Amino acid sequence: MNNDEILMIIREEGLNYYNWYNSKKVKCNQVCIDLKDDHWIVFTTDERQHRISENAFDNENDALQEFIKRLRASNRRRKKRN
């Protein structure tokens, strides 16, 4: 997977509540991806905007797969609650 494929999936599936490489301020209950010191970091934020369940990856492909997996799961949970 690459960035363009992930962004296309996000658009096509109407996924929300994510932060793409620090493109905006981190908010509560988001799935986030970031690049820091040659490592891709995927994490989720809680209701207080704290990082939870953070994973670091040595390659972007693995990080993107984890990011989209978490984002899909997060959006499914939100839909069930509504």
- Helical content stands at 40-55%
Mean pLDDT: 95
Major beta sheet, specifics? 4 strands, mixed
Shape: globular
Q: Strand tally, please?
A: 4
Beta-strand residue percentage: 25-35%
Give the CA-CA distance, first to last residue.
Answer: 31 Å
Give the uncertain stretches in residue-range form. none
Task: Order the strands across the largest sheet as they lie in space.
Answer: 1-2-3-4
Number of helices: 2
Class inferred from helices and paired strands: alpha+beta
CA radius of gyration is: 12 Å
InterPro entries: Imm59
Write a structural description.
With 82 residues, the protein is of the alpha+beta class. It has one domain (3-76). It is 40% helix and 28% strand. It has helices at 3-13, 60-81; strands at 18-20, 31-36, 39-45, 51-57. A 4-stranded mixed beta sheet has the order 1-2-3-4, with helices on one face. β3 (39-45) and β4 (51-57) form a beta hairpin. It is globular, with a radius of gyration of 12 Å. The relative contact order is 0.21. The model has no long low-confidence stretch (mean pLDDT 95). Pfam families: Imm59. InterPro entries: Imm59.
